[in-house]
Design a protein that fits this description.
CATH architecture: 4-Layer Sandwich
Number of strands: 16
Mean pLDDT: 96
CATH class: Alpha Beta
Helix content: 10-25%
CATH superfamily: CNF1/YfiH-like putative cysteine hydrolases
Number of helices: 7
Largest sheet: 7 strands, mixed
Number of domains: 1
Oligomer: single chain
Length: 261
């Protein structure tokens, strides 16, 4: 994972995906947008109380840097479910926390503020899946459901799937109570006292992917902490309400619509 400062706004990118011709995969930082505090400055959360005009301009800034035409963007009503949807139209979809597509018609998007972005790609068939994995979705196995949906819908072999995990809250800052920690028996460690634990969302999702058949060498779980890296990222846990949102996008380049980076 790298933060690419060669473009404005700077984008989080992955060398694994940059090496795949025609693939667009990016995660926004909070830099170089137009929103004032507390959304300073590249807030991309449509559900926040930020000014809609500024939100639209921020989206245009981000998608322009990523090289995606906004008319083919698809996003979901995220509710910490295990539902996977395959869109038939652009724009807002129903309630789900994973979007699945094949080919270069749609650009998949999801928003985040500490939850874990999981991007799945099978290059040979041009199959893409964008996953929003908070602790509830992770505990319920959203990563496994996403891989199974790729198999069921497009007959994808899990061993061919490449996975990257984006910036999210890391164990150093994600301290929870026993009721949450007990849902992650293999992916938590003691916190500041006996009543608190630090949960490793990347570890839990990596475990889910491996159990679903994704090869360990195809999983890039190195990530930056949204709570620690306040210069680059919003964090709901750090900042409370209100706070901004990031966006992750995943698409195949469409030569008729997109601009080339």
């Amino acid at each position: 994972m790298i933060i690419d400062h060669n473009i404005s706004p700077p984008l989080v990118r992955w060398k694994t995906f940059d090496a795949i011709p025609g693939l667009i995969a990016a995660f926004s930082t909070r830099l170089d947008g137009v929103s004032p505090a507390p959304y300073e400055s590249l807030n991309l959360g449509l559900a926040t109380d930020d000014n809609p005009v500024r939100l639209a301009e921020n989206r245009q800034i981000f998608l322009g840097a990523a090289g995606i035409d906004p008319t083919r963007l698809v996003w979901a009503k995220q509710e910490h479910t295990t539902t996977v949807l395959t869109p038939d139209t652009p724009g807002a979809q129903g309630s789900c926390d994973a979007l699945l597509t094949q080919g270069n018609r749609w650009a998949l998007a999801a928003t985040f503020a500490d939850c874990l972005p999981l991007l799945l790609v099978e290059p040979e068939s041009q199959t893409l899946c964008m996953v929003h994995a908070g602790w509830r979705g992770t505990a319920a196995g959203i990563a496994r459901y996403a891989v199974e949906a790729m198999q069921d819908k497009y007959q994808i072999t899990p061993e061919k799937i490449l996975a990257v995990i984006g910036p999210h809250i890391l164990p150093c800052c994600f301290e929870v109570g026993t009721n949450v920690a007990e849902q992650f028996p293999d992916d938590c460690q003691p916190g500041r006292d006996a009543a608190h634990w630090q949960v490793d969302l990347a570890g839990a999702n990596t475990r889910l992917l491996k159990n679903a058949g994704v090869l360990p060498e195809h999983i890039n779980a190195q990530a930056l902490c949204t709570s620690c890296e306040s210069h680059y990222f919003f964090s709901h846990r750090r900042d409370g309400f209100p706070s901004g949102r990031h966006m992750a996008v995943l698409a195949w380049h469409n030569t008729e619509l997109d601009t080339q980076l």
